[in-house]
Write a sequence for this structure.
């Protein structure tokens, strides 16, 4: 399966960068389609609006290195998906589709009409669904260490093993997998902080989102959307560029060499530079 087991586990991991990254006075709330309070921030000005979407068991503070960099030129929005960060609980099933609706709720509430959705890991699939719900408003998607192979799937029996493992020991299994996504040269303090934070997430939310991530098929959305899809990916895992180009309207990738899944924290300066270049290229094509 082209190392998909490893790739999916990577795609499910994101990092904690501090719960106090955004002052309370800069955070706002809007209701989701199913009446869950969604916390978001909006800073900067100008088009396109960059909407940053986090991953599994993380929140909007993980983009703290990106907000001050990009707000100088663009409107920058970060949000907490339902069940994460400062957003509300209460959803029975945390699906990729419902997360996509969360993003659409924030975009619509802000009246944004020219948007680039940027998603780390699971946030990439979330943005596929968000774009389907925002016709004419989303001009491009940018994945961050995600979209390695749109066509690759984990077999059902392997998915069941993952769910059983997380159900039996959510904290221990999560910590082990988070650590496995760092390269050998990674900063030990960062790795420990991230692993501890991820492992402390709500098992009910985490397991539901994990299962739905594995069950999600991105192909219908990929084939439907007529917008560019770009990536900034680590080179530790293979991105099937040619295969993805056959499936998507437009696809390409930039690599960060020698970094792991958490490249936006391992080397934020390089990551921001590559993301900035990617956004400029998207806008040049408009």
């Amino acid at each position: 399966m082209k190392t998909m087991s490893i790739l999916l586990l990577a795609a499910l991991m994101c990092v904690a960068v501090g719960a106090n990254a955004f002052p309370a006075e800069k955070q706002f709330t809007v209701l989701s389609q199913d009446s869950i309070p969604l916390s978001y921030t909006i800073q900067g000005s100008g088009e396109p609006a960059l909407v940053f979407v986090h991953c599994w068991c993380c929140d909007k503070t993980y983009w703290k290195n990106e907000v001050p960099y990009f707000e100088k030129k663009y409107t920058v929005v970060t949000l907490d998906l339902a069940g994460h960060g400062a957003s509300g609980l209460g959803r029975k099933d945390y699906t990729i589709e419902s997360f996509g609706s969360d993003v659409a709720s924030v975009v619509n509430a802000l009246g944004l009409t020219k948007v680039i959705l940027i998603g780390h890991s699971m946030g990439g699939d979330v943005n596929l669904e968000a774009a389907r719900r925002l016709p004419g408003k989303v001009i491009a998607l940018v994945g961050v260490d995600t979209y390695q192979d749109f066509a690759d799937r984990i077999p059902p029996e392997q998915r069941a093993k993952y769910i059983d493992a997380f159900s039996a020991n959510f904290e221990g299994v999560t910590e082990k997998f988070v650590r496995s996504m760092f390269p050998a040269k990674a900063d030990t303090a960062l790795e420990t902080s991230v692993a501890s934070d991820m492992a402390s997430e709500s098992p009910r939310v985490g397991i539901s989102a994990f299962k739905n991530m594995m069950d999600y098929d991105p192909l219908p959305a990929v084939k439907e959307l007529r917008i560019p899809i770009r990536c900034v990916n680590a080179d530790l895992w293979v991105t099937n560029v040619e295969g993805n180009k056959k499936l998507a309207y437009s696809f390409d990738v930039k690599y960060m060499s020698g970094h792991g899944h958490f490249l936006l924290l391992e080397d934020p300066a390089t990551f921001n530079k590559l993301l900035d270049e990617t956004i400029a290229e998207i806008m040049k094509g408009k």
User: Anything to note?
Assistant: The beta strands are 27-31, 37-43, 49-53, 75-79, 115-120, 138-144, 228-234, 250-256. Confidence is low (pLDDT under 50) at residues 1-17.
